[in-house]
Amino acid sequence: MEVIKAAILGFGTVGEGVYEAIQTHQQQLQNILGVEVQIAGVLIQDLEKERNIADEVLVTTNFEDILNIPDLQVVFEAIVGEDPSYSYLSQAIDKRCDIVTANKVMFATYGEKLIKKAQTQNVKIGYEATVAGGVPIIRTLAQQLQVNKVGRIQAILNGTSNFILTEMRNKELSFENALGIAQELGYAEADPTNDIGGFDAFYKLMILSSLTFGEQPDWDEVKIEGISALSNDQLEEANQNNFRYKHVAELIKEGDNISASVSPVLTDADHPLYNVEGVDNAVVIEANLAGTLTIQGPGAGKKPTASAMIEDFVHIIQSKKTSYALS
Amino acid sequence: MEVIKAAILGFGTVGEGVYEAIQTHQQQLQNILGVEVQIAGVLIQDLEKERNIADEVLVTTNFEDILNIPDLQVVFEAIVGEDPSYSYLSQAIDKRCDIVTANKVMFATYGEKLIKKAQTQNVKIGYEATVAGGVPIIRTLAQQLQVNKVGRIQAILNGTSNFILTEMRNKELSFENALGIAQELGYAEADPTNDIGGFDAFYKLMILSSLTFGEQPDWDEVKIEGISALSNDQLEEANQNNFRYKHVAELIKEGDNISASVSPVLTDADHPLYNVEGVDNAVVIEANLAGTLTIQGPGAGKKPTASAMIEDFVHIIQSKKTSYALS
């Protein structure tokens, strides 16, 4: 059986999730693709740390070692931040590797460039995992709404801030206590600024903008407002009137103009985001033919993120195999 | 510019919707596909009826005329019922036409056969419009959850019965009055048996079963229960306790066994179908990696159904064009 060699960059929750899912779903992958999928290398930061990786896998802190793996075909990227991810992926594309990434900050900034580079090298980039975890929003927009014209997207793209708002309202917890619980449960980082400040949602929204409208608004003109100014009194008053505050990321296209914002929004019971609770993410798409579509599900976590990356991987290999078969 | 010739079988709401959408989105289709899409023929039942179809289009009551259109590439099928649709589509496949269908009754019965036949003739079948209108559930299951193992699907697949339940609860209307309003608004047929009796949802559920599990349960063993036995008192009592009755179509796979049912189900406020109101459809997918995903949107209507069919069409032409380009 043909073997496809892949490498994983970064072995935090996401990288480990991909590794594990490929082991546990090896038979399924073979059934679908007719090939064996082999993780040939893993790029890590700290060689001393104990990890559950098979002995035959090259584990290294040196990206050159990864690039030098013979016949490497696919790179799964699960590093945080712009650098050195962008540089690594550029090099991998130049070596004709397909890319599957979960790195939203990097992709919001360099996604359009990487896609162009990938086209010139005839390789593919999967980035489903950069937005809303296991919720297949990227592929839905890219493939299932091609003729449709999308006028507006409203979304809950950060599970942590949505969880905090839900806990504050349901359990009358203070912001600090709700954040503490989110941190205990592993939803929030030690430094939660990106989540509660709206920056995480902002990066994801910019990726959706590139995909949907072919461009991003000027970042300086995007209003980004976090949730930490919301008081329990405000949440309670809204609730009494059957409203809920949701941390909404919004994109609107009017004529040639794209406007974007991330901010707490008062939603009524008929709003499609009103009932999106806890750590779930959801994306509401207003399309001219299909109407208003909502896609909801787990926006983060080891398995959902691994799901998005492996489904991307399968899609990439299939698109290549079809052409091989027919050429 | 290359021309792709297509025909439409049936010119009711759905057929007309496809025709109109292809006219209004011609530029968009040319941008995406690099071809002109031409409706070359329309099959109708009654030649006397006035229709808004351009003079150069062949309008006929004879399917042979459609089959004889030179270089016909795609057939959009929007007829109701098993016959003669199945026979027409079989013949079209034998002439190497790709198929896009909205016919759920026919496809629930003959879909697996038609797909096999299409494979032997190397043509494609799009059937997104058979289930949940413009909600892209078919392609989500077929393409975005390939590695994931789906254990359960719960869905609201009939907008009419969901609309009636919503009106009865919200406005305390009797079943008869709510049905009357659904008929006035064009949601329900003159004979609403298929909608309120659960049969329409049943056919759609069987299509989802074939797609998700590769087979259907024995039809005789599927419990199909309509909504007409529900009283206002029952709905009101549920509502007081924060429950709602929803007309739920459910598929469960345990081991090798598939069980299916369509019936009124009491949902609590945490249930993903609790807030699906009015004529919306929604499908909840329990997948082992991605988690619980919900997709919601307009389940019927001229534009949403046309949307599903045209997006299918684009997908089919793209999958062929890629191979042309590479071969």
Automatic annotation (TrEMBL), chains A, B:
Domain Aspartate/homoserine dehydrogenase NAD-binding: 10-128
Gene3D superfamilies xrefs: Dihydrodipicolinate Reductase, domain 2 (3.30.360.10), NAD(P)-binding Rossmann-like Domain (3.40.50.720)
Keywords, ordered alphabetically: Amino-acid biosynthesis, Methionine biosynthesis, NADP, Oxidoreductase, Sodium, Threonine biosynthesis
UniProt entry tagged with the keyword Isomerase: no
Name by which UniProt lists this protein: Homoserine dehydrogenase
Pathway(s) annotated for this protein in UniProt: Amino-acid biosynthesis; L-methionine biosynthesis via de novo pathway; L-homoserine from L-aspartate: step 3/3; Amino-acid biosynthesis; L-threonine biosynthesis; L-threonine from L-aspartate: step 3/5
InterPro entries associated with the record: Asp/hSer_DH_NAD-bd, HDH_cat, HDH_CS, HDH_short, NAD(P)-bd_dom_sf
Domain Homoserine dehydrogenase catalytic: 136-314
Organism this protein belongs to: Lederbergia lenta (Bacillus lentus)
Annotated residues for binding of NADPH: K104
GO MF terms, alphabetically ordered: homoserine dehydrogenase activity; NADP binding
EC number: 1.1.1.3
PROSITE patterns: HOMOSER_DHGENASE (PS01042)
NCBIfam families in UniProt: PRK06349.1 (NF004976)
Substrates-to-products reaction catalysed: L-homoserine + NADP(+) = L-aspartate 4-semialdehyde + NADPH + H(+)
Family the UniProt entry places it in: Belongs to the homoserine dehydrogenase family.
Classification via PANTHER family: HOMOSERINE DEHYDROGENASE
Binding locations of NADP(+): G10, F11, G12, T13, V14, G15
Active-site residues annotated for this sequence: K204
Binding positions (L-homoserine): E189
